[in-house]
Design brief:
With 157 residues, this protein is of the alpha+beta class. The chain has one domain. It has two helices and ten strands. The strands form two sheets. It has a five-stranded antiparallel β-sheet, with helices on one face. Strand 3 and strand 4 form a beta hairpin. The protein starts with a helix and ends in a 13-residue tail after the last strand.
Length: 157
């Protein structure tokens, strides 16, 4: 009986690890690479290397949205829709993994967010998010190999 519990535990643990394996190739990586930078600015204060986003985006249908967020604890990327007054979370990777790059595909109004950091405070992880701005929904969330991605967009002063 003890043997089977141990085997089941090991299989369950392997299953959890296998589900979150980082990939070095996926369509979302190509889409992120091809998307246009939404340049961050550097945050003033005690941690000047942190990036923040506060950008107005004009969508294909002529409407506008605001993309906001920061590379910091609790950091996420939000979309504010001025027409409806809604504020929606586009990407939130969770504890210790913060947004580090934001890009837009101007052909279809999809937003791509790279988030990286120490998952659970232990292992370095990088995630890509694909968010459909017009439909207001997350299309994809994929754990990726950081080295498979291009250099992050340059911050403006």
């Amino acid at each position: 009986m003890e043997f089977s519990k141990a085997v089941l535990f090991d299989l369950a643990l392997l299953g959890l690890v296998g589900c979150n394996r980082a990939v070095s190739y996926a369509p979302i990586i190509d889409q992120y690479n091809a998307a246009t930078c939404i340049s961050p600015s550097l945050m003033p204060g005690p941690n000047p290397a942190s990036r923040e986003w506060n950008a107005k985006i004009l969508l294909l249908d002529g409407s506008q949205v605001f993309v906001t967020g920061a590379q910091m604890p609790g950091g996420r990327i939000d979309i504010r829709y001025p027409k409806s007054g809604e504020n929606v979370v586009a990407a939130d990777a969770g504890d210790y993994i913060y947004p580090s790059d934001v890009r837009l595909n101007p052909q279809n109004d999809d937003l791509y967010v790279k988030a990286s950091g120490l998952g659970g405070g232990i292992w370095f992880e990088t995630w890509l998010f694909e968010y459909d701005i017009r439909a207001q929904r997350l299309l994809k969330r994929q754990k990726v190999v950081d080295k498979a991605l291009p250099t992050e967009c340059t911050a403006v002063q």
